[in-house]
Amino acid sequence: MLRIAIQAKGRLNEQSIDLLSEAGIGVAESKRKLISRADGFPMEVLYLRDDDIPQAVAMGVADLGIVGLNEVAEKNFPVERTMDLGFGSCRISLAVDRTADYNGLDYFRGKRVATSYPNILARFFAEKGIDAEIHTIEGSVEIAPAVGMSDAIFDIVSSGGTLISNGLVEVEKVFYSEAVLIANPELDEDKRRETAQLTFRFNSILESRGMKYVLMNLPQEKLDEAITILPGMRSPTVLPLAQEGWCSIHAVICESQLWERIERLKALGAEGILVLTLENMIR
Ligand code: PRT
Ligand code: ZN
């Protein structure tokens, strides 16, 4: 039986539980428990602080983990990055006071930079040949320059709102992160098979995101033209209608192309167009 570590509370908790649940795996939301048994899959769920997940997976306390790539890269424990999960996107950036005269990376020479990601920052500065003082602080990194603790910060940025409200400006985007599925590198054969079942479900969920299932009625004589407009997993499905000369056509369309395709199909005479949300796409 697999044991997966997820964040007990915080930004990745809810989306981790949602992804498991979409994959047919029921997970208790009780945040007071350390561990619980999942429904619908041979799995136990371990609720941890995100900082502890890479180590728990490296040590085999958990077989799998869902955690930000930033934590994996910072901690540098030996774990396999099995799959990118498409949520929790952010970047870790260098930011300086809005009024600073920033002129490129050389600005940081001899400067004090506050961060909760000293290893990622040290690797970046070493690669660029910049000699700076890295100050590790745990929380509220963004206030460090205002209270005189540092000249700059290296912190997670998502919308950029936190930087602006602290009078800072993002000057270098260093590391891009999203939630990832990590695995202990020494899983036995049974656990590898179960992990493959899990990633198969996750992949079909991620692939279906942004896809729509479209049904419409179309005059039979326009069918060939409609097929050139509609993609499909193989080709669109076409069914006869009781009314002579008409057919029903079904296809999967990427959300970004949806309206453009529908306008072209309407121009061909398509009627009764239904657009449905796709839950899974199994190739
Ligand atoms: O208690 P525990 O240790 O488990 O949680 P935590 O407080 O350490 O982490 P948490 O829940 O804040 O974040 C978990 C993970 O979410 C991070 O490791 C990232 O992988 C991811 N993530 C995505 C973010 C953000 N977006 C984010 N915006 N983590 C933090 N932030 C913070 C950031 O530190 C800054 O203070 O949000 C602020 C910036 O946001 P904007 O939108 O104002 O730019
Ligand atoms: Zn944390």
TrEMBL record:
GO terms classed as biological process: L-histidine biosynthetic process
The reaction(s) this protein catalyses: 1-(5-phospho-beta-D-ribosyl)-ATP + diphosphate = 5-phospho-alpha-D-ribose 1-diphosphate + ATP
UniProt xrefs under InterPro entries: ATP-PRT_HisG_long, ATP_PRibTrfase_cat, ATP_PRibTrfase_CS, ATP_PRibTrfase_HisG, HisG_C, N-reg_PII-like_a/b, N-reg_PII/ATP_PRibTrfase_C
Keyword set includes Cytoplasm: yes
Principal subcellular localization: cytoplasm
Organism: Alistipes finegoldii
HAMAP family assigned: HisG_Long
GO-annotated molecular function: ATP binding; ATP phosphoribosyltransferase activity; magnesium ion binding
Pathway: Amino-acid biosynthesis; L-histidine biosynthesis; L-histidine from 5-phospho-alpha-D-ribose 1-diphosphate: step 1/9
Annotated EC: 2.4.2.17
Gene Ontology CC: one annotated term: cytoplasm
Keyword Zinc-finger set for record: no
Lineage: Bacteria, Pseudomonadati, Bacteroidota, Bacteroidia, Bacteroidales
Protein's UniProt name: ATP phosphoribosyltransferase
Activity control mechanisms: Feedback inhibited by histidine.
Family indicated by similarity: Belongs to the ATP phosphoribosyltransferase family. Long subfamily.
